[in-house]
Amino acid sequence: MDTSSKENIQLFCKSSMQPVGQSSFKTEYSSSKEKQRCCGKLKVFLGALSFVYFAKALAEGYLKSTITQIERRFDIPSSLVGVIDGSFEIGNLLVITFVSYFGAKLHRPKIIGTGCLIMGVGTLLIAMPQFFMQQYRYEKYSPFSNSTLSLSPCLLESDSQLPLSIIEKSQSKRTDGCVQTVAIIGPIFGFLLGSLCAKLYVDIGFVNLDHVTITPKDPQWVGAWWLGYLIAGIVSLLAALPFWCLPKSLPRPRSREDSNSSSEKFKFIMDDHTDYQTPLGEKSKIMEMARDFLPSLKNLFGNPLYLLYLCASTVQFNSLFGMVTYKPKYIEQQYGQSSSKANFVIGLINIPAVAFGIFSGGIVMKKFRISVYGAAKLYLGSSVLGYLLFLSLFALGCENSDVAGLTVSYQGTKPVSYHERALFSDCNSRCKCSETKWDPVCGENGITYASACLAGCQTSTRSGKTLIFYNCTCVGIAASKSGNSSGMVGRCQKDNGCPKMFLYFLVISVITSYTLSLGGIPGYILLLRCIKPQFKSFALGIYTLAIRVLAGIPAPVYFGILIDTSCLKWGFKRCGRRGSCRLYDSNAFRHIYLGLTVMLGTVSIFLSIAVLFTLKKNCVSKHRSFRTKTEGTMVSTRIRKENCTTSDHLLQPNYWPGKETQL
């Protein structure tokens, strides 16, 4: 065909196909417009979902930061505080399994919005006791805020009615790594908010702060624990608003309809007609979905890899939940830091290390394209290295403070055993002191006394919020560098080496947090790839349920029960019942807190090893079956080729018997 004819054909095609070209152009334009609209709504959904993660994590992080404040405010032991912390997860028991199963088939945005509303109202309810209870009452010696009046604590406590009347008078005044990282940012703000609220007096706005005679460094100080719950509740309510404006699902963009490599975020919110709709295109009925619930559950637990990973994660989260819940308390008791500083350190140093570790794990998985087996090895390696580093914290503790009658004798020369602990001595026998009272006084000799009365102090003076005691007989009998027998309100500081130990603790804690969180994304990928696609939503729901029921609820409780066994001095309520612990044995507290964490981590490591061997076994068996199938296919292909060659040879028109012999 010559060139002119080709040009004519091309011109004809252009003229004849012009309308079709216009329609295809319109189709492409509408498709791109639809794609932009779809992507816009998807970005709104992901942004709203990230904000929900932030709101939920903010409330959870703030709850952890208020543990010690709630314990002092309501005068309760750590075990009961653990029950309160664990009850934060109880609401999930009622709905999480069914939401994860039916949520994949119903209007997901509205379900998420309803959950946010319930979460917001519940968070607001946590703060309600502050508005229905009487004001916080702490023990103090004098009702005068600015006075140089000389009082005798020793004689003051011999009269049981005077302190009570004084107190009552004064108190009448971008990828899945991106959403998870956003969820980690929530606790950062939660702990920082907890640090801020811990500096504010609990009854701020209800009393005249000029009449408050204690400071945030005082062991009786209680911060405004309730204020953060109001803020977190409002944030949760605001997070619910966008989901009521989103459709049930988004149409799949045409450019992605035939794509087999569409990302998980599109599969999550787009329509999928193959699994969840009947052949007629009608909506699945609730009863039909309910019939598939038990078979789906059986299918999940019949997967040994999923079951082992579930057990390993549950045990590991037991150690992590217990460790995080009582970490502020551990810093306060072990290193003598204030509640505000403990929350500030955790929020500003530890949790960012966790976020960076999770993000780094996702980057490593993506950049090096690590397989499922490699993800399992990375998950195991991070756990082993993290808990090995955690062991070094046993050596970074501080010794007990010198407390007369509890950790040292009143002479300050020797430690006392459990049976020898006695708050009374000859130096305070005439004072008729209360054994249950805990308003510590630091003597000039560096020894802390449970109260000024038990220190045998005869006189006191106050200037503003500073209260100084003089002529303390018990302080005088112990060796004193200055020779004075005076004291001030508050505990004595820990030994000089404790600040350095605290610095080392922070460094090791940050490295450990980063190392443990490095395996977060690999473990999550392992979870997703060990189950069938149609069971992903249900499997994640069961996983979350198991973590919350078997780790989130019990871990704070039994951690708190064991921590209470290290208490040296219990407080008592006005009704006579036992209250919160005033002083812990630092060594026992350290061994219980760190030992329990490491023990649970070791169990999770052995379960992770079992996961790795199971995965390797499955990979080997699949490789063998694939190899057998491949070899069988090659043999059948070779036989088929030989048969085809023979038949073709016989079908040649010039072929006759004996041709090869003659040739």
TrEMBL record:
Q: Which GO terms describe its cellular component?
A: basolateral plasma membrane
Residues in Kazal-like domain copies: 421-476
* Entry keyword annotation includes Membrane: yes
Under the heading PROSITE patterns, the entry gives: KAZAL_2
Tell me, what is an example of a GO biological process annotation in this record? sodium-independent organic anion transport
Q: What is its main location?
A: membrane
Location of this chain's protein in the cell: Cell membrane
Q: How does it sit in the membrane?
A: Multi-pass membrane protein
Query: Which controlled-vocabulary keywords does the entry list?
Result: Cell membrane, Disulfide bond, Glycoprotein, Ion transport, Lipid transport, Membrane, Transmembrane, Transmembrane helix, Transport
Transmembrane stretches, by residue range?
80-104, 110-132, 178-202, 222-246, 305-324, 344-364, 376-396, 501-528, 540-563, 592-615
A Gene Ontology molecular-function term? sodium-independent organic anion transmembrane transporter activity
Q: Has keyword Ion transport? A: yes
Q: What catalytic activity does the UniProt entry give for this protein? A: L-thyroxine sulfate(out) = L-thyroxine sulfate(in); L-thyroxine(out) = L-thyroxine(in); 3,3',5'-triiodo-L-thyronine(out) = 3,3',5'-triiodo-L-thyronine(in)
The family note in this entry says: Belongs to the organo anion transporter (TC 2.A.60) family.
Protein name per the record: Solute carrier organic anion transporter family member
Which gene holds the coding sequence for this protein? Answer: SLCO1C1
